[in-house]
Amino acid sequence: MKKAVLAVFLLFAASLIPLCAGTVTGTGWGETEEAALQNSRADLISRFSINISSVTYASAEDDGYGASSSSLGSYSLQSSSFNLLGVQEETERQNGGYFATSSLTEAQAPLYEAQLNNLYSTISSLYASLDSDGDFASQKNTYLRLISALRDYEIYQIVVLQLNPSSSAAARMLPVTRTVIEAEYQSRLLVENSNTSITVTNLQQQAQMGILSIQGEQELKEALAQLEENRKQQEELQALAEQDYSMRREEFQQSMAATISQLQAEFDAANVSAVTGDMSYSQLINNIEANRATLQAIKDSVNSQLRNIENAYDDAVSELRRKYEIMPYEANEMINGQPTVSARRYREQVLEAEIENLRGQYAPQANAVYQEAFARMSALTDYSLSYVDQLRKGRFTLNSFAPEVNTYIDSYAEAAKLFSGVAEITIGNEVITLYFRIPYENWTGESVPSQGDISAYSMYRDNAYDWFEIMREFPEIYTVEFEFTISNDYSSTYEVNFHRFSITRNDTGEEVFSTSIDQTDTLSYPSRTSLTDFSVTYDELLDMSQFKYARNSGSGQNADTASSAQNALSGKSGQDDAASAAEAVQDNRTDEKKKEKSSFSKKLEDGYLYRRFIIDAEVSALTTSDFDSFWTGAWVSIIPKVNFFSVGVQGTFLVDIPIGSNALASPSHIYIGPSLNLMYPVSHSLYIYAAVSAGGGMRYNMEGDFKFDSNLLYFGAAGSAGVIYGTSSGFGIKVSGNAAWLDNELYFGASAGFSMSF
Predict the structure, then answer these.
(1) Cα 244 to the chain's mean position, in Å?
(2) Strands 88-94, 97-104: parallel, antiparallel or unpaired by DSSP?
């Protein structure tokens, strides 16, 4: 590829503008003169290859300094408009209507240059006022105004360059590009959205539990409104990106047609997925932090209730003390007008007993309040910890088409033969910067020649810098994909560990480069709450020994369970559920329950079930669906035991006895196959039993002399279910229902037998 090829591939609008000035004319027809003029103006605008939502007509007498509006109320990003200045228009009647022309010449270029000058000043001022470390909420309006001004600047720049390609006003370098500002604004929107989502989830949980204050209700309304505004702006940003991409893709494909021999004509970038893999990391982090905030809100709420109970208790104690202080002593309790030591000691003892009685009245109230809160905090912590576990187990993937990712190629290192790129990835409340590289040889599939071959090396350099310009101006031609994991120790700090990135050429669909990376970044959320800290300030009346948190490993392991745990925190039945949960937590931790559990386990270990092997033998009575004969036989199972489930071998011998005949008839069966068995204790001696088996069988005919005339092998299956009464000595009696599929025939019936475990 030579330098001349670069002009074909440059994908920004200025590269498509002619190098000489000329008149640009649009035409239109309409039934009325005004309709014809409107159509001709629209056609004129289309000649400049610009995409705007509205056109404002300004007469030739316009001084060129009218403001270009690009805002609607809250500065909608897609409301760019364009003032059509100094247009020369003509109309004539034609074919029962009107034919109109609208033209611009080089003479009108200064009108648009004046607009550029105004916009340049506006852009410079707005960009200078931005502070990436400042309060984003106060800078949103500045970002939106800046983006709109940059879009308007692009529109007027295209017009000026086509009317006057040598214009110095259109050649000035802006302090920033729209792509950079839109990416920065998108990143800050995502961070704000993440923080707002945490706030919303926290406040909604408080509302469900009935502990949301009036101020909290207002904050929730504002946060929900903020989320909706952010959603709309993100949709607008995405729509703008798709609009820009569609235009650039079309230009790119048109230019590629001229160089079809050098690049593949089919461009597949539109099929590149923005997100692959499990992208739940953002929701997981937001839920964890929202739950952490809700946990603190529960503690604050219960502290308030406990404070009121303790204050009432302290007031009652103070009143009781005053009562005993002014209570007169009896005459027999005094000597020389003073109470005796024993009388004072007795009164103190009575007072302490009264105080203890008061404590007995108030302590249950405090414990009941904390018990409900403890159940809620336990459930909340259970599924919060499960979210952390899911986060730590996940391996996540993001690529450069995701809204969380902004990438650009910033340089080409000739000595290293590498294109260098920068990726800014928004995760949680941070924007993380990563650096990636694309080897020239991997990207092009061409080897770098020796510098000794001057001609070939010069060609290589031209190609490399051509590709650099293309990749920089048209990032859709490549996809960067990052793999990462997130670790967390249950605190409000998260470590994002990047492991690998890969590069795909979107014009060929080929992954050209992949390598491992080792970069760790930290996300920190402000929090004063540990997920497992249930302590409260006002605990004077509490018996904390009965409230010991132990994680319920079955809670929150999936969305349904987590949702159930969440529902346990709220709703009309929330208090009953919470109290029941607290009682269960308390009861499960008592020594008595532990002893009962230990005793039951000990009985099982001494019983029939917990033996190494089990041998079953049964006598069965089976029939077929037409009930034309009965079958008798033996079922034998040899089962090595493993807990409640086991596997073994089951054998069956069936003999056909036709109804009304004492003679052996045919056919009969022999079946054998592996089995899966389940025995579960209903009590110490009684067990539920079930078994399924699949194996092979053989059909045979028996004559009076019991000789085999013929045989046939087939696939078979058998099953049974029933009960076993087993003793600790290892002997059991077994009764079950049976079914078998043998030689394409269903047999069913019942059996009885014995079972031995040893």
Answers:
(1) 28
(2) antiparallel
